[in-house]
Amino acid sequence: MRFEDGRFFVPCIRDHTRLQINALHDDVIDQATEEAGVGGLADSLRQLSNVGRMPDDEIHAELLLRTPEISEIVDIWEKSPLHNLTLTTVGIAIGHAYWRRTTKSPEPLSTWI
Fold it and tell me: Positive or negative, the Cα torsion across 96, 108, 30, 21?
């Protein structure tokens, strides 16, 4: 099995000299390893995907560095009851439909739900 095809690893978004797991969550890892016939690697890839994850404060700092105008949105979010809300699967589906419509991305809903 070759791993260079981008199925499991892609260049790291923040450091192109490194690699990162090509999956948004564990279900994507499970599906990709099953499709490739290497389901036994799923546990190892899930563990590896958690190595070096950015803490929330670093994500916040990175967002502000790359998109300074987001600071107003972050302030509103943190100072209002909005930060206590969580998305339902219906909300995710609505957001996904809007995202697909505006970006023309073929990414399936199953990536997020």
Answer: negative
Report pLDDT digits (tens) over 14-67.
888 988 888 888 888 888 888 888 888 899 998 988 887 888 888 888 889 989
pTM: 0.53
So what's the pLDDT on residue 44? 92
Pick left, alpha or beta for residue 67 (phi over 0 → left; psi -120 to 50 → alpha; otherwise beta).
beta
CB 23 within 8 A of CB 32: yes
Rounded Cα gap, residues 17 and 1, in angstroms: 22
SS3 annotation, 26-92:
HHHHHHHHHHHCCHHHHHHHHHHHCCCCCCHHHHHHHHHHHCHHHHHHHHHHHHCHHHHCCCCHHHH
- Map out the domains of the chain as residue ranges: 1-53
Q: What are the φ and ψ backbone dihedral angles of 11, each rounded to 5 degrees? A: -60, 140
